[in-house]
């Protein structure tokens, strides 16, 4: 067991970090006093029994910690006070990591099922077996299938085991040769398309609250409910409470901990796009103040568009711009271009009338007045106007800031300080991508993309590149991939080029591949940290589908639904037993001065396992060897690199490549990665816990790498239209062959439009007198995000949550709605949608929009094998459905807000 010795010398070294931090303007006082306090505490820091680690009680896992082991027992955990981001803080989830270790419902040894019948109500009748038997049985089945037809094997992963970005997702599946690797997070987590289309980033964007003065937060949970210990969230709180120089407006049907600290604007679910269009309308036609320089030079607003909706192209094939200076039409990259006209109308190109993209965007928004938006969103027109004016007034249009770049040069960057962001609350809807694009459009109107104070991508530094038209080239979900028939993937990936992940659809198809046009059946499933039954939607249908797969094995930490349905359990270490490397990529929330230019690489020095379990990545590597595919696996790592976070890849130098035929441990692979990235061995991390690096301030911003006119962001969404036209053509050609229930081609492809329009959806029809007269919604709480680390199951967290969060595990109703329905606090009710019903206890509150039924967190289990408590909470996902006609038309995310009715149980 490796130990951490925090000696006087390393405390002094920490003081050195504090000195450097002071130069950067970071206040580390709390850090020093925390260190001193910890050291004073029984002198424990100088003892050998403290280990460095990092948390991972949530899927980000970006808060470095330290834990103490006494006589082989983990007895204490604290944040690592030397961390410049979280500064030694841990949230309630982080505090409960010891219960993750001593969880009595863990799988403690390899197991095989002896009851051949599979079902949620069936007792698997587990019998303990040896590791050899468990690995050989699993590898034996997988080897035989691989030789015959690798497509018959499904690899299903999720955020229950994030390390090596969901445990070798495509590395393992790619080596095996199956197209069927399915991430279970996707259905209810559709966040990526618009950020990729407009900014070329993955997984998403974050406001730069280092400088931002105004954040318009749409259907999102800043800081997982402001209880995250992450540096960004703490920095934001610092700005709100101490510096008092930022305004955050949360447009949400529910007032969570974040909205309660900022301004809450209650919205009727489904009315968000209308609200955003109302704000855009007011900015364009009433406020009339915008960042015209940005629109001219950093967007495709001046690109001339023909009557077919596509860019008009010159003889050289390039998009054309009208130059107001010499009244000539020029190619977008013409060096003489001086004053691009974003208001150009009726410009003739090749005998066809064209208009600037921005003219079409404005026309599209002309009718969407604040009064119109108020009727749909339930937000008064006066509030919509106020938001529009505040957004522009706080944007600092025209201002700039001087910074130092990586070459030591002074550069002047534009600074914009109003940002709008949306997350699951607006994106998981039929028009989710539209709402998301509309948030980007607001940012473009005031020029706040990729600049200090504006909206930034998760990856900092130079990552944008222009496509052949000079517009941001998408790298992920917004890239168009030509559809093909017959489909090869069980998630029908061929039909949905802009999907996130489609686990629910995948398992529906898996149960009946031939019907969907696939020419093979599914014979085996291996799951690591994903739960298609509990985390996605239509849980009973998912369970039936998983049960139908002839062989399934699960790398299991505890007896969750996926383990319950398996034939073989390959038991996994708990968090403190897992050796792990992770890099700070921020917790999705905001950047602040504490985090904007800081890189932190963190390491968990594991404690010896309590039971007969293994490191999950080592289980997969063992399987590779026994299946006979270690060469392919190693080659994949050499090709793609070592993943040190979610988006941090370390490319290996050919001299450090993994050798064919050799089986490495995950620690050896990480060692190669850390050396490649930081030029340090993994052993150094055992000693220090973290590696901290500072980037030059300007290098965090794309705008410091691209001059004006280079890499324009799309404000006219030509690519979306192109996708729709291609898809429509494909579906028309194959309409007699394609089997896709609940799919209406015309309705689907209407959404693929270059200028956003508003359309009614199921939520719009919810009103008094209808069968479904209320809308149910769901959110994450500080203690219940998703189910990673078993947070829904640990007694400490259950108790903290029930004591301090009145919404946790309850069904929330507005006072007025409860009175109308004759329902009282504590009553048990049924909530019923077209898809299913859930019962639970009512909590009455003013902090929810009337006509809304609110559920907190990803709670509820369908098996008792995690204890009765975890199973007792209402499971929201029974109410949702994965019908394509109801999903986001572009990213195919399930609609997370659902028409429902309620009645007393
Ligand atoms: N109702 C509701 N549902 C949601 C969400 C929500 O907010 N509310 N959020 C959605 C979002 S955004 C996402 S990303 C997805 C995530 O969904 P998934 O990717 O499926 O991830 P998790 O729910 O975190 O965990 C999956 C399973 O892993 C188990 N597990 C916990 N710890 C470990 C471990 O150490 N090892 C292994 N092997 N397994 C472990 C969990 O108990 C759980 O059964 O959920 C989505 N589903
Ligand atoms: N520290 C930490 N950070 C994380 C994670 C973590 O595990 N730990 N998980 C990450 C993951 S996987 C994800 S996907 C993100 C999710 O980040 P968010 O999307 O910010 O998280 P949610 O709580 O699901 O946000 C939903 C919000 O939308 C609101 N909402 C629900 N329905 C509606 C609706 O119909 N309309 C509107 N306007 N609002 C609605 C809810 O009240 C809630 O405030 O968080 C990420 N960030
Ligand atoms: Mo997510």
From TrEMBL:
| InterPro entries attached to this UniProt entry | Asp_de-COase-like_dom_sf, MoPterin_dinucl-bd_dom, Mopterin_OxRdtase, Mopterin_OxRdtase_4Fe-4S_dom, Mopterin_OxRdtase_prok_CS, Prok_Mopterin_Oxidored, TAT_signal, TAT_signal_bac_arc
Obligatory cofactor(s): Mo-bis(molybdopterin guanine dinucleotide)
Q: Which GO terms describe its molecular function?
A: 4 iron, 4 sulfur cluster binding; metal ion binding; molybdopterin cofactor binding; oxidoreductase activity
The record's keywords, sorted A to Z, are: 4Fe-4S, Iron, Iron-sulfur, Membrane, Metal-binding, Molybdenum, Oxidoreductase, Signal, Transmembrane, Transmembrane helix
Membrane spanning residue stretches = 153-173
Question: Domain 4Fe-4S Mo/W bis-MGD-type, which positions?
Answer: 48-105
Q: Which domain of life is it from?
A: Bacteria
What protein family is recorded? Belongs to the prokaryotic molybdopterin-containing oxidoreductase family.
What PANTHER family does the database record attribute to this sequence?
TETRATHIONATE REDUCTASE SUBUNIT A, TRIMETHYLAMINE-N-OXIDE REDUCTASE
- What's the name of the protein? Twin-arginine translocation signal domain-containing protein
Task: Show the taxonomic lineage.
Answer: Bacteria, Pseudomonadati, Deferribacterota, Deferribacteres, Deferribacterales
């Amino acid at each position: 067991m490796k130990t951490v010795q925090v000696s006087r010398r390393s405390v002094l070294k920490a003081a050195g970090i504090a000195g450097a931090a002071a130069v950067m303007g970071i206040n580390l006082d709390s850090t020093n006093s925390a260190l001193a306090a910890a050291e004073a505490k029984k002198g424990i820091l100088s003892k050998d029994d403290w280990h460095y680690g990092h948390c991972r009680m949530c899927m980000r896992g970006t808060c470095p910690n330290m834990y103490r082991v006494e006589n082989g027992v983990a007895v204490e955990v604290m944040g690592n006070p030397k961390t410049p981001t979280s500064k030694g803080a841990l949230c309630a989830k982080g505090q409960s990591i010891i219960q993750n270790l001593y969880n009595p419902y863990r799988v403690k040894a390899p197991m095989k099922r002896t009851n051949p019948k599979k079902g949620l109500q069936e007792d698997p009748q587990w019998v303990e077996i040896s590791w050899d038997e468990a690995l050989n049985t699993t590898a034996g089945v997988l080897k035989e299938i691989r030789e015959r037809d690798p497509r018959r094997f499904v690899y299903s992963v999720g955020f229950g085991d994030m390390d090596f970005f969901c445990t070798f997702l495509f590395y393992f599946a790619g080596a095996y040769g199956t197209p069927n690797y399915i991430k279970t997070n996707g259905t209810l987590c559709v966040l990526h398309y618009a950020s990729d289309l407009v900014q070329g980033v993955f997984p998403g964007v974050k406001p730069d609250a280092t400088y931002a003065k105004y954040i318009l937060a749409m259907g999102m949970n800043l800081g997982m409910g402001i209880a995250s210990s992450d540096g960004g969230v703490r920095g934001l709180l610092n700005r709100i409470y101490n510096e008092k120089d930022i305004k955050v407006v949360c447009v949400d049907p529910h007032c969570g901990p974040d909205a309660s600290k900022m301004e809450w604007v209650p919205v009727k679910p489904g009315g968000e796009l209308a609200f955003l269009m109302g704000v855009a309308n007011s900015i364009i036609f009433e406020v009339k103040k915008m960042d015209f320089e940005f629109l001219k030079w950093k967007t495709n607003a001046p690109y001339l568009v023909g009557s077919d909706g596509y860019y008009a192209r010159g003889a050289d094939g390039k998009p054309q711009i009208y130059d107001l200076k010499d009244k000539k039409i020029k190619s977008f990259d013409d060096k003489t271009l001086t004053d691009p006209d974003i208001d150009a109308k009726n410009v003739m190109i090749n005998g066809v009338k064209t208009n600037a993209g921005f003219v079409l965007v404005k026309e599209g928004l002309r009718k969407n007045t604040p009064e119109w938006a108020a009727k749909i969103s339930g937000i008064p027109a006066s509030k919509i106007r106020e938001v529009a004016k505040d957004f522009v007034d706080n944007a600092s249009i025209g201002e700039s800031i001087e910074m130092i770049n990586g070459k030591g040069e002074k550069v002047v960057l534009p600074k914009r300080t109003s940002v709008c962001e949306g997350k699951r609350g607006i994106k998981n809807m039929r028009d989710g991508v539209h709402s998301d694009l509309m948030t980007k459009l607001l940012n473009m109107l005031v020029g706040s993309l990729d600049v200090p104070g504006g909206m930034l991508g998760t990856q900092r530094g130079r990552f944008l590149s222009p496509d052949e038209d000079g517009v941001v080239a998408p790298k992920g979900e917004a890239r168009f991939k030509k559809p093909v028939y017959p489909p090869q993937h069980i998630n029908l990936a061929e039909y949905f080029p802009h999907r996130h992940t489609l686990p629910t659809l995948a398992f529906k198809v898996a149960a009946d591949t031939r019907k969907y046009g696939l020419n093979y059946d599914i014979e085996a499933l291996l799951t690591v940290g994903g739960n298609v039954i509990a985390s996605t939607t239509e849980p009973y249908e998912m369970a039936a589908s998983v049960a139908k797969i002839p062989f399934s094995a699960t790398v299991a930490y505890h007896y969750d639904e996926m383990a319950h349905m398996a034939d073989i359990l390959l038991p996994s270490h708990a968090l403190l037993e897992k050796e792990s490397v992770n890099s700070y990529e921020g917790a999705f929330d905001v950047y602040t001065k504490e985090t904007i230019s800081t890189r932190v690489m963190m390491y968990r020095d594991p404690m010896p396992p309590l039971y007969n379990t293994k490191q999950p990545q080592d289980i997969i590597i063992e399987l590779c060897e026994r299946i006979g595919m270690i060469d392919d696996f190693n080659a994949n790592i050499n090709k793609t690199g070592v993943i040190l976070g979610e988006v941090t890849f370390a490319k290996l130098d050919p001299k450090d490549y993994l050798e064919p035929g050799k089986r490495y441990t995950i620690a050896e692979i990480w060692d190669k990665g850390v050396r490649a990235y930081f030029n340090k061995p993994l052993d150094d991390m055992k000693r220090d816990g973290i590696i901290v690096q500072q980037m030059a301030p300007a290098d965090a911003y794309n705008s410091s790498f691209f001059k004006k006119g280079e890499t324009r962001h799309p404000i006219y969404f030509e690519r979306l239209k192109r996708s729709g036209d291609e898809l429509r053509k494909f579906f028309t050609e194959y309409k007699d062959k394609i089997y896709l229930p609940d799919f209406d081609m015309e309705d689907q492809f209407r959404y693929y439009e270059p200028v956003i329009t508003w359309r009614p959806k199921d939520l719009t029809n919810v009103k008094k007198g209808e069968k479904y007269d209320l809308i149910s919604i769901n959110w994450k709480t500080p203690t219940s995000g998703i189910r990673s680390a078993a947070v829904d199951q640990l007694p400490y967290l259950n108790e903290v949550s029930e004591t301090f969060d009145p919404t946790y595990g309850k069904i929330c109703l507005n006072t007025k709605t409860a009175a109308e329905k004759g329902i009282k606090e504590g009553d048990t009710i049924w909530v019923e949608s077209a898809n299913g019903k859930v019962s639970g206890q009512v909590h009455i509150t003013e902090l929810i929009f009337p006509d809304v039924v609110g559920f907190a967190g990803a709670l509820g289990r369908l098996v008792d094998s995690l204890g009765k408590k975890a199973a007792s909470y209402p499971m929201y996902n029974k109410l949702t459905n994965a019908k394509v006609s109801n999903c986001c038309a572009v990213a195919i995310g399930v609609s997370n807000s659902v028409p429902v009715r309620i009645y007393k149980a």
